[in-house]
Design a protein that fits this description.
The chain has 506 residues and is an alpha/beta fold. Helix content is 55%, strand content 8%. The strands form two sheets. The protein has a five-stranded parallel sheet with strand order 5-6-7-4-8, with helices on both faces. The protein has a three-stranded mixed sheet with strand order 1-2-3. Strand 6, helix 11 and strand 7 form a beta-alpha-beta unit.
Length: 506
Amino acid sequence: MASSQDSDAALLWEDVMALLSARDDVNRSVVAMIESCVPTSMDDETFHVSTTLGFAQRKVTQHAHIVEECLEQASFQHLALVVDLVKDTRTVRVASEVSPEELTRLSEVTSEPQPAPAPVPTRAMQPAMSEEAAYVERMSDMITENDSRLTFERFVAGEENRYALEAAKQVANGDNSSYNPLFIYGKSGLGKTHLLRAIQNYIAKNDPSRTCIYRAAADFVDEYVMAATDRTSASASSNMTARYQNVDVLIIDDIQNMMTAGGTIRFFFKTFNTLMSHNKQIVLAADRSPSQLGMGESKFDERDTSRMDSGLSVSIQVPDYELKLNLINAFYDRMRQDAVDEHVEGVAGTIPDEMRRLMAERAGTNIRVIEGFVQSCLMQANRRERAGQEITRADIIEVASQKWPTGQRIVTVDHIQRQVEKFYDVGHNDLIGSKRNKELMEARHVGIWLTRELTDNTLAEIGKKFGGRTHATVKHSIAWVDDFRKRDRIFHDRIETLRDQIADAT
């Protein structure tokens, strides 16, 4: 009887896997992890699968509801998924080097066959990864279909991002060791993640012998916490150490999300030092410059920020009209071609050049939103064409107003001051007071300048809000910021970041 149940479980599991693979709402790495489990038994209420990996047991259990939906669809009854952890009876292999199988290449998911990985040299100073660690790396480093499209060829270049693009290309090629670490920063939605993924995709396709790991900082923090608190595996922490110290290129995105995670920061910089000492490449991205990462309540100290800034730090600026027009044209051509290649209906409309220029005039600065803007306009153009009409200026303006509403709340002086105080980590009395040390003076000048830019207050009214300063003193602060932002690109970026934070918080 038990044998019959085991057979039924195996057959049902095949149906579940077919249903799961057909879903487009489940991450590929999650599907692969579920597929690694072995069906063992079932009864009227439960369905048992087993795995030898504690990490896989935890992850599959977290996504049990997805499997249970497929189980119910295949068996016409609700079955609770139970993931059993079983002991691996295979002989444990002890090695002094990491095998190519353990350092799985990102090129596993590319459609074209890749050359066999080159042998990985022995690194006596680093521990060998366990099979569980290798499995975790394989699952988490798969490049999804959407991410695989983020290539250098699909990146739209302009004066605002060209330096960052060229630096990323050199790092991907391994051409410039002085760009280590490469630190790319700028406000959200300007293409930082695209460049980081482009590096990863280029290496996976053109140089698979180089081991490359991409991580969002939030995922890196979660992984560290899970390893540090894992009571089921004594080797969890050493596995994580081995996984990150045995790479050739480490990419961490949105590193500002690590600012309050002190334990993760210490682990990261231990890894950072090891990789740098072995001439391995590190690429980082953030929404602010390295020096800004140490401001406020951040747990990055000056030593940390100086190490991140020890290679090449390059900013990506908000796009001007010309770049926005280039972006719109590129997205327009790409979406139309993708619609043909992938047989997608509803986005095959035609937008004349004049209308695309209007789109660039009306568009905001977030590139991700601009891409969505183009898609919405294409859909509107398609609807117009089906009715025998052409897309109009009114259509473009209406879509733009939905993406970038003009009815924004009023920015007040008090709000600007609070954001400046938070940004520079200064008190209100110090900001409007008479102290004249360098840090306070910059914050005060910037606060006055932003108040002039973002409000309708007169210079006299601004002076009153900043401690009763005179008309001439306010003019001096404004002139100081105007002059300094022209001469110092980092300062200019700092101003733009703060301006964006004020706008986002209103």
